[in-house]
Design goal:
alpha/beta, TIM Barrel, 9 helices, 8 strands, globular, binds zinc ion
């Protein structure tokens, strides 16, 4: 019953002390593949080095909206280079974050748009980060989807409502479901998830962030993906096996992993 963690910052310094043990626990918990989304250009080779050492590890190459002020045409050229690596399966994580506003909003928009175009050019899916920027992100995605064919991707840590979920799914996106599905107050999220159903969902931990309920306030890790899968099974009234199989198939449809049989 393989599970796929579609969003795990395994390259994060939070794992420097025990990364091999974390990976061993993930494997024990049936996590057979995971995708490391990058946040800065500098972290991409670190993630790729991990992917080269371990089967089942894949990388998304991109510049996070927090780091959008580091985006430039040289950065874009470098991204295009990394994106040709056989273990790179997506452009991400990219998007807009108007909550923390760590880069100017105009710079965020520009970096987001250029990276969407790069994904289109390379035929890769995107991993989208969005916080307090729903309308702006949907505007950019709508334009991207209209501009070509084959647009696909993940709305990571989905936090929108049912209407947004339905629109994104109609555009070829799936929703990334993580720790928040286990939180007592996540009623709107559970409703959105029920509205779109299992065929539109993938699992993610976002480790070391966003741990599921029993581990809140502590470091998250990919082994906890199983708790997220169990919570999702309860929300949808389906078996854990069904959730595992369906979400793995969805992840495979988005990322088209080579050499993974899950
Ligand atoms: Zn992330």
């Amino acid at each position: 019953m393989p599970l796929i963690d579609t969003h795990c910052h395994l390259d994060d310094p939070a794992f420097d002390g025990d990364r091999e043990e974390v990976l061993a626990r993930a494997r024990m918990a049936s996590v057979e593949a995971l995708v490391i989304p990058s946040v800065t250009l500098e972290r991409i080779p670190v993630a790729l080095a991990l992917a080269e050492r371990h089967p089942g590890i894949y990388v998304a190459a991109g510049i996070h909206p927090h780091a959008a002020s580091t985006f430039s045409s040289a950065a874009l050229a470098q991204l295009r280079e990394w994106a040709r690596h056989p273990r790179v399966v997506a452009i991400g994580e990219i998007g807009l974050d108007f909550y923390r506003d760590l880069s100017p909003r105009e710079a965020q928009r520009e970096a987001f748009r250029a990276q969407l175009e790069l994904a289109g050019e390379l035929g890769l899916p995107v991993i989208i980060h969005q916080r307090e920027a729903r309308d702006a992100v949907m505007e950019e995605l709508e334009r991207w989807v209209a501009s070509g064919s084959g647009a696909r991707g993940i709305l990571h840590a989905f936090s929108g409502d049912t209407a947004m979920a339905r629109t994104a799914v109609a555009w070829g996106f799936v929703l990334g479901i993580g720790g928040p599905i286990t939180y007592p107050r996540a009623e709107a999220l559970r409703e959105a998830v029920q509205a779109v159903g299992a065929s539109a969902l993938v699992l993610e931990t976002d480790a070391p962030y966003l741990p599921p309920q029993p581990y809140r306030g502590r470091r998250n890790e990919p082994a906890y993906l199983r708790l997220i899968a169990e919570a999702l099974a309860r929300v949808l009234g389906l078996s854990l096996e069904h959730i595992a199989e369906q979400t793995s198939r969805n992840a495979q449809r988005i990322f088209r992993f080579k050499g993974f049989e899950g």
